[in-house]
Amino acid sequence: MRFNGSFITAFAVSLLVAACSQQVDLPTDTEPPTSSEPPVVTNPDPTPPDTQTPPPTPNDPPAVSVNGVPQTLDLETPVEVWWASHPYNPESPNFIPVGGIQSPDPVLNVRDEFGGNIQAAIDALPASGGTLYFPPGTYGGNWTLVGKSNVHFISDGGAVLTGVGFVVGCTDAIDYQRLMERVRVEKNPDAINCVTDGRIENIYFKNLTFDGGGTQLLAITIRAARQVLFDNVTFQNYRDPGNYHRGLINATAWVDDIWVRDSRFLGSERWAVYFDGCFACGVIGSEIAGNFGNGGLLILTNQDADFDINGDGIFQENEIRQANHIVVANNTFGGLHQGIQITGKDALVVGNTATADQAIFVQFSAKCDQVNPNAGIHSVFNNLRVENNRVAGVNAFVRVNAYPDGCGSGNTMEIGGYYVAGNTVERFYGTNPGLVVEVSGPIVDPRVITDNLCGGVACDNQVRALAE
């Protein structure tokens, strides 16, 4: 995202690219305009599939549980090593099953105690947090969770939420442009605390359905927050406006440890999920339907949030908000123009299945910081791993885009160090297809392509280069 000091209204962006095109337009770095209050809505009435674990039921409690959503952020360890012992990796010895998060007291019954009013229930929680329990039923109305950690939204099933939710660290974070103004221009101490040590944490959604009633554009926005987990959640009946690059989940400023597991994104909008500048985030074992306008998962670098927090004149890795330590694992994708787009480093795309054609299965892109000109920021986009995925048909299975976006600002970037291994492509289609497509070079070594099959035969040599 690019922050403009005049805080102009964000402009519309759309990826209007034919399925077999050689060029793919990237989303701009501008967030869709957001009101200082949650939007008004009309409330309506009330792993590949063969190995995917079914959603838990109240009668099948997990064998292992932990107290609260865990912190997993570790930028020092390579993503593949980090993921091997990660608590959301089903093959990890530390695995926490879906539904295996213990929820805090007190427990408030949203239907019986508050007549279904979510905001009233949130406001009734003590400062220390608690659990909102949703019995079966439909719950209307927008809601905001501001500055209160340790809040869990829990159901045993049958609960449908029809409003728009905000999960934010402070009131300023409800409005994206206002938050950037307070942090970057005013350098307000309260706002800086909101996006650093004061972020809300341990937020959990389990066994819920978010329903847009065919009119809403998104379900939930997350800013200045960390340790947010969605377990067995369904998102359905949303509307694709044909512009901007929103997702049904928007996590867009100073967000860490945002995870989705065993959930269903049934449409629509431009993207199913939009993470911006996210550290240690991912989507695991979920279904992404084929009715999203641009693609499935959009995971970008947020230049607006590149900020010298400690004021030492040097941008450390944790002060550069490029997507970092991203995992997309064991999901099922429908037919989309683009399954996954990542502008970041240490990214692992593993064990996914696309059951219908994708023009591009995964694209890795790079860009220079344009918000802090001549700051000496060298953005590195490396350790990009695509392993053991299966797709029905593609034009470009992996696209690595080295176009020097924004590099006239005096900052620099590099992209490369990719590893494409053990993948299966059933067929290629369109003009100049390729297992790996490199755009605009140079691409930094190492570039490892091994043990891939296309149409049943080895295809590691199917690499092509394009000029942007």
List keywords for this structure.
single chain, 468 residues, mainly beta, 32-stranded mixed sheet, two-stranded parallel ribbon, 5 helices, globular, disordered N terminus, signal, Pectin_lyase_fold/virulence, Pectin_lyas_fold
SSE blueprint:
Layout: E1 66-67, H1 79-84, E2 101-102, E3 107-109, H2 110-114, H3 118-124, E4 130-133, E5 137-139, E6 143-146, E7 151-161, E8 165-168, H4 176-185, H5 189-194, E9 200-211, E10 220-231, E11 234-236, E12 247-261, E13 264-265, E14 271-276, E15 279-284, E16 287-288, E17 295-300, E18 323-329, E19 332-333, E20 336-342, E21 344-350, E22 353-354, E23 358-365, E24 378-381, E25 384-387, E26 390-391, E27 394-401, E28 412-421, E29 424-425, E30 434-439, E31 444-450, E32 453-454, E33 457-458, E34 463-466
Parallel strand pairs: 1-2, 3-4, 4-7, 5-7, 6-8, 7-9, 8-10, 9-10, 9-11, 10-12, 11-13, 12-14, 12-15, 13-16, 14-17, 15-18, 16-19, 17-20, 18-21, 19-22, 20-23, 21-25, 22-26, 23-27, 24-28, 25-28, 26-29, 27-30, 28-31, 29-32, 30-34
Antiparallel strand pairs: 32-33
